[in-house]
């Protein structure tokens, strides 16, 4: 049976992170997926450029029998889900074969738990018709703004346990 494990994301995981950034791009049903090189466009590449080297960068990888199959990460940046300079933006994706099995929820639990001591809020951007929005709402993200079919959402983190 496939063993799913989790570990902290490091700067050396750049290739995996690039692939997960690609999988994080929402493709509506019936649309042709973009080429992988879309992640090199500056507005997308900024989510992972030199990841691990800036204050506020952190994330968790999911591995299946040691192979990277998913990631959730945050970065302080003026991305599509920008709310404020001290609110990191969350990104998350799994390769398609591992979706809908609870792995994304576990990734979110892990990445968010690690942020409580440092931040009070987390933001993200999600298409209104992306089923992932239901997952975000279930764990407490609330709509902050809506623009052109996309929601910016915000989560208030509970304080870290003493
Ligand atoms: C979003 C994602 C990381 C969630 O991880 P997951 O392991 O599939 O999620 P879980 O099994 O823990 O939880 C199920 C929830 O995930 C979401 N989900 C499930 N399959 C999904 C899919 N193919 N695409 C988007 N969201 C999905 C739904 O909200 C689902 O809740 P529901 O059962 O009420 O519909 C994963 O589905 C994924 O990589 N999706 C494509 C990339 C993406 O949309 N990233 C977010 C961009 S804002």
In words, what does this structure look like?
A hairpin with a 2-residue loop joins strand 6 and strand 7. By secondary structure, the protein is of the alpha+beta class. The strands form two sheets. Strands 1-2-3-4 form a four-stranded antiparallel sheet, sandwiched between helices. The protein has a three-stranded antiparallel sheet with strand order 5-7-6, with helices on one face. The model has no long low-confidence stretch (mean pLDDT 96). 20% of the residues lie in helices and 29% in strands. It has a domain of 113 residues: Aminopeptidase (3-Layer(aba) Sandwich). Bound molecules: coenzyme A (COA). The site of coenzyme A has 19 residues, from strand 4, helix 3 and helix 4.
Using brief descriptors, characterize the structure shown.
single chain, 162 residues, alpha+beta, Aminopeptidase, 4-stranded antiparallel β-sheet, 3-stranded antiparallel β-sheet, 4 helices, 29% strand, globular, binds coenzyme A
């Amino acid at each position: 049976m496939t063993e799913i494990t989790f570990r902290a994301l490091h700067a050396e995981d750049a290739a995996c992170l690039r692939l997960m950034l690609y999988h994080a791009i929402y493709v509506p049903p019936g649309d042709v997926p973009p080429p992988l090189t879309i992640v090199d466009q500056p507005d997308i590449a900024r989510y992972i450029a030199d990841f691990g080297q800036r204050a506020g960068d952190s994330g968790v990888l999911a591995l299946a029998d040691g192979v990277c199959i998913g990631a959730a990460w945050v970065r302080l940046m003026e991305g599509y889900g920008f709310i404020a300079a001290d609110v990191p933006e969350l990104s998350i994706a799994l390769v398609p074969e591992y979706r809908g099995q609870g792995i994304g929820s576990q990734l979110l639990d892990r990445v968010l738990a690690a942020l409580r001591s440092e931040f009070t809020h987390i933001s993200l951007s999600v298409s209104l018709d992306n089923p992932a929005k239901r997952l975000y709402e279930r764990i407490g993200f609330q709509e902050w703004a809506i623009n052109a079919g996309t929601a910016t959402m915000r989560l208030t983190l509970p304080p870290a346990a003493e």
